[in-house]
């Protein structure tokens, strides 16, 4: 099983300068390698698809890839000796990022979906670097040893679970300071909880009137963190717009704005974790809608949809369920609000109609509650649930305590 723990670190003034210089040098190298890719792409492509029998074609340039760009880092340290201050593994992560960004643009992901053209990173936009290998004894007594930086103080607000090994370490600069993210792994933790109960199942319907409604009729209200903070954000944003570009006063105000946005994001994330934790304490199987949140974010309800953060919540819920040996099943979202949960007859209703009244069987209940019951019914007998049950019944599964369901 894999998981990640993030801690805040307290570097000294000299260590903070080293981290900032490392991020800035990595940003320059990222932009340089990305420019190499664009030069090759523009030089080798041609709008003409036919030519005469006798023609002269220029010699094509060698395509930059991860391996030859990684090999060029040796010459980089010769031409620019200050790059020797960066750990080799940290520097080798840059061509890997460029490779991923460029391939997502030209080739797309495993489903063939392509992303936008990669952008050059401006000052302060490169915020994370990673050590791909890490020794366990370099993290003891609330201090972590980072190569080329030194021993940095860590605020360990929760201990690392027994048996988990640190695989990678990432350093991130945020608006309120520096953080370290530890990627942990333990291959002995079973995938399914030994006392997995498939009958402890519910369905949840997420919405804007209520954040979610369960099949049992329980609701969680929408906190609206961003809308409550809009007034304060508007004041700071106006203050930023009045400052002269490039001035220290503008930089100070931009940092203040970033802290306010991070405060909103942290509140939302904390709400998501606590809500997911409460659900997983009550149920072993949770059925959710397979929503197209990106499509919903292009409607008139975009601000409310993004403020609720459905995608982040469902991702957190799924990850916490995996860590606890439980199950989250996505089901088809179409028709969950229109179909009657009692008799299955389709009862068309517009979005502003918030109550479900079935003329066929007389079922009358809240629209979201009806949808949650439909989601639960669709999950029962799902192939994913059957596969998990077969795995759970296999003998000889080693029992080991999984991670607690707390945040």
Automatic annotation (TrEMBL):
* Stored InterPro entries: Cas12f1-like_TNB, Transposase, Transposase_put_HTH
Name the domain of life this protein comes from.
Bacteria
Cas12f1-like TNB domain sequence ranges: 310-375
**Coiled-coil annotated residue ranges, if any:** none
Any Pfam family the entry gives: HTH_OrfB_IS605
Describe the location of the Transposase putative helix-turn-helix domain by residue ranges: 1-44
Any idea where the Probable transposase IS891/IS1136/IS1341 domain is? 192-298
UniProtKB keywords: DNA recombination, DNA-binding, Metal-binding, Transposition, Zinc
Q: Which family does it belong to?
A: In the C-terminal section; belongs to the transposase 35 family.
What is this protein's name? Transposase
Q: What is the lineage of its organism?
A: Bacteria, Bacillati, Cyanobacteriota, Cyanophyceae, Nostocales
